[in-house]
Amino acid sequence: MTGASRGVGKGCAIELARSGFDVALTARTVEEGEQREHSSTVARSDTSPLPGSLETTASMVREVGGKALVLPADLLDPSSLEAAMDCVIDEWGGCDLLLHNARYVGPGHMDRLLDAPIEVIERHIQANILTPLVLTRKCLPGMIDQGGGTIIVMTSASGYTDPPAAAGEGGWGMGYGISKAGAHRIPGFLKAEHERDGIRSFLVHPGLTATERIQQDMKEFGFEGGAPVEVVAKVVAWLATASAADALTGTNIEAQFLCHERGLLPGWSGPTPNEHGLRYDRSGARLEELEAGLSR
Predict the structure, then answer these.
(1) What is the model's pTM?
(2) Quick one: which of 18, 149, 34 has its CA closest to 96?
(3) Cα Rg for the chain, rounded, in angstroms?
(4) What whole-number distance in Å separates Cα of residue 52 and Cα of residue 65?
(5) Could you tell me the sign of the dihedral formed by the alpha carbons of 255, 269, 229, 105, in that order?
């Protein structure tokens, strides 16, 4: 899985280990305290350390009984992820589940088109679309040979809805939105091409989630709080293990709704009702619409 050093990726790694998976962990940050650029805008730099690391996640995976491979890799260097997959195949003989969780972190995420150099937008496209395709192509033949596998793409409402306002005023940058839109199409194509080969493919939309980066970086842009990371982690583990999920292959799963409706995280109250008593996720989808989509 990619993006395993913190946030949703870290939560998913631990929950998958609890569900019986051994987990190969990729990200850039190997040890706590490493400094890398993570400003969302070209207007300034921010290399302050973010909490989390591959070593920390690996330790927590092992604590719940899973095996962990620590494989440093960078979405902007596809060859590093191909090498990581080679290590997984050498060590464990193959891959049952591929989780595309990471995305490009850096300037452009919250910049408007005229403020974002084209090379910054190219980084979004490389990291969020092309590198996941490279890794998917690397995994697919082995999954087909072994009779099946699961591929999950962590999506975003920015990939299938227009921003409510410009970046900096409640919206997000075009580079982020168009690159997430491209990745959003991947599971549908996998369903059409490889469902007959036993390949299950899903989109998972987390909704606003209380990750370390949301808390540290995104408050200034109007994004804070959100559902616990465990919500998304429970949904990913359910998709990876439940036969009932087979009927949802190729579709977009609204994680907060599915977690709440299936009671995957006892004690969590679920998506917040609006003034009409209807529950919405951050994409604006109504509960009734979600339920209709899940029943198809």
Answers:
(1) 0.91
(2) 149
(3) 18
(4) 20
(5) positive
b/e map 177-199, b = 16+ CB within 10 Å: bbbbbbbbebbeebbeebeeeeb
CB neighbour list of residue 250: distance below 8 Å, 6 or more residues apart = 187, 188, 190, 191, 192, 195, 201, 202
CA–CA distance, 71 with 121 (Å, rounded to integer): 26
Q: Where are the domains of the chain?
A: 7-295
Q: Residue 273: which pLDDT band, with cuts at 50, 70 and 90?
A: low
Residue with the bigger pLDDT between 281 and 195: it is 195
Q: What are phi and psi of 161, to 5 degrees?
A: -135, 155
**Backbone φ/ψ region at 35: left (φ over 0), alpha (ψ -120 to 50), beta:** beta
3-class secondary-structure state, position 290: helix
Assigned token pair, 150: 């699961």
Average pLDDT, the chain: 91
Matching residue, tokens 């403020």? 115
What is the sign of the dihedral through the CA atoms of 89, 136, 27 and 258? negative
- CB atoms under 10 Å from CB of 150, counted, come to 22
What is the 8-class DSSP label of residue 129?
I
Tell me which of 108-112, 205-209, 276-280 is least confident. Answer: 276-280
Q: How far apart are CA 182 and CA 176, in angstroms?
A: 10
CATH superfamily of 7-295: NAD(P)-binding Rossmann-like Domain (3.40.50.720)
- Say what angle helices 255-262 and 229-241 make with each other, to 10 degrees: 70
Alpha helices in the chain (DSSP H): 7-18, 54-63, 78-92, 118-125, 131-145, 174-184, 186-194, 212-217, 229-241, 255-262, 287-295
